[in-house]
Write a structure and sequence with these properties.
CATH architecture of the largest domain: 3-Layer(aba) Sandwich
Pfam families: SBP_bac_1 (PF01547)
Distance between the termini: 50 Å
Number of domains: 2
Strand order of the largest sheet: 2-1-3-13-6
Family: Belongs to the bacterial solute-binding protein 1 family.
Keywords: Signal, Transport
Bound molecules: beta-D-glucopyranose
Number of helices: 17
Oligomer: single chain
Number of strands: 14
Radius of gyration: 21 Å
Shape: globular
CATH topology of the largest domain: D-Maltodextrin-Binding Protein, domain 2
Strand content: 5-15%
Protein name: Probable sugar-binding periplasmic protein
Organism: Fictibacillus barbaricus
Largest sheet: 5 strands, mixed
């Protein structure tokens, strides 16, 4: 008994330690504290489909600045499940990493900027000539009260439905672009014993991600946007319709969804155990780089039902926290990350498209090329699941409500929880 307690304590301690510093291309002592000269890059990009782009970016930086030691301080967990908590406690303890991954929108502006934790980067944008190199909508997402606070490394699309080409071909199915077509295909697949839709909500954000794409499909960009400003109530008939549709979709998922993460769920589609998956295009990075699948041969993609012409934007950005000792080195890193070369090293591996408008399109596969074109034309919607649409406090409550809904399927209770969470909206 005693022994097992000690084993647990040692295990927990080692997990905490490894979570706080998973790998390093610098000196690797993992205990980087305020005042160190190492350039600590904090993100949640570790392993399976996540870290290839980051490694390429770090390599590019190290080639240019061999004298600046880097520490890759990534904390595992999709969508920042664990990293955001570690970051919050470090920021509170005045021990910020040199630079950290943060989504453009509320997560940055209502979070760290409002808390007065970030330096402005207007001078860096001036110096690098960036003000007309990023789309205005994107600069707005990283600005507050006329000041710019971070540099976008990418644009991810959230509303993508991935499907297994072979399964669709063998069953004479077309990729569904409407909810009716989705349910029609799902029924046929289910009758054949194939799981229609893969979900891995061990980390609850994945179900929120699916739900927000249904909201976007049912409400359209404008009304969807009104949810986060309080102009449209969560008991609006369209939201209820979205909730019912989401519930119906949950009738077609794999039974073991709550023990899988997003990679495990994507894998079901990759290996033919499930036909479809709704996930951001980091899934493409995973399919191509980790699983060695081919775009438009092994898997296909369409916007999630009824969201054609709409683009759920997720942008990963990096800024300069107040109080770091190596601000000049951080700016050097941000300059590389914001350069054409930096963006084109990172994004083809990450699955995202470049945030810059002048990147080299030839470096991207067909999915990337299509998405670069779509982004230019589409109506942009901010992702809730990925921190852009609303504050972290609201998102936490929505994640909890969604998680309960996935098991209990009580639509009224879910809408009530969304309504009460809305008190967190500013
Ligand atoms: C991030 C992506 C990441 C995904 C899964 C999102 O919140 O923006 O960069 O790949 O989470 O971890």
């Amino acid at each position: 008994m005693k022994k097992s307690i000690w084993v647990s304590i040692v295990l927990i301690c080692s997990l905490v330690l490894s979570a706080c510093s998973s790998s390093s291309s610098g000196n690797g002592d993992g205990g980087d504290k305020k005042g160190s000269d190492k350039l600590e890059i904090f993100s949640w990009w570790t392993g399976a489909g996540e870290e290839d782009g980051l490694k390429a970016l770090i390599k590019l930086f190290e080639d240019k600045y061999p004298d600046v030691p880097i520490e890759n301080a990534a904390v595992a967990g999709g969508a920042g499940t664990n990293a955001k908590a570690v970051l919050a406690s470090r920021m509170q303890g005045n021990d910020p990493p040199a630079t950290f991954q943060v989504h453009g929108g509320a997560e940055l502006n209502e979070g760290w900027v409002a808390a007065d934790k970030m330096e402005t980067l207007n001078d860096l944008y001036e110096k690098e000539g960036w003000n007309d190199k990023f789309p205005k909508d994107l600069i707005d997402m990283v600005s507050k009260d006329g000041n710019i606070y971070s540099v976008p490394v990418n644009i991810h699309r959230g509303n993508v439905l991935w499907y297994n080409k072979k399964i669709f071909e063998e069953n004479g199915l077309e990729a569904p672009t409407t909810f009716d077509a989705f349910f029609e295909a799902a029924e046929k697949l289910k009758a054949k014993g194939i799981t229609p839709l893969a979900l891995g909500d061990k980390e609850p954000w994945t179900a929120t991600h699916l739900f927000e794409t249904v909201l976007l499909g049912k409400l359209g960009t404008e009304d969807y946007g009104k949810l986060w400003t309080g102009e449209l109530s969560f008991d609006d008939a369209k939201v209820k319709d979205a909730v019912d549709t989401f519930k119906k979709m949950l009738g077609y998922i794999n039974e073991d969804h709550s023990s899988r993460n997003w990679q495990d769920a994507s894998q079901l589609v990759a290996n033919g155990e499930a036909a479809m998956n709704v996930m951001g295009d980091w899934a493409k990075g995973y399919f191509v780089n980790d699983l060695k699948l081919k775009v438009n041969e092994d898997f296909g993609y369409v916007p999630t039902p009824e969201t054609e012409g709409q683009f759920m934007v997720i942008t990963d950005t990096f800024g300069l926290p107040k109080g770091v000792s190596n601000a000049d080195d951080v700016k050097k890193f941000l300059a590389v990350l914001g350069s054409v070369e930096g963006q084109d090293a990172f994004n083809p591996l990450k699955g995202s498209i470049p945030a810059r408008i002048d990147a080299d399109v030839s470096k991207y596969d067909q999915y990337g090329k299509d998405t670069i074109e779509d982004f230019k034309e589409a109506k942009l919607a901010a992702s809730l699941a990925h921190g852009s649409a609303a504050s972290e406090g609201f998102l936490t409550k929505v994640n909890q409500a969604v998680n309960i809904f996935v098991t209990q399927k009580d639509a009224k209770q879910f809408v009530d929880s969304l309504k009460s969470a809305a008190s967190e909206l500013k």
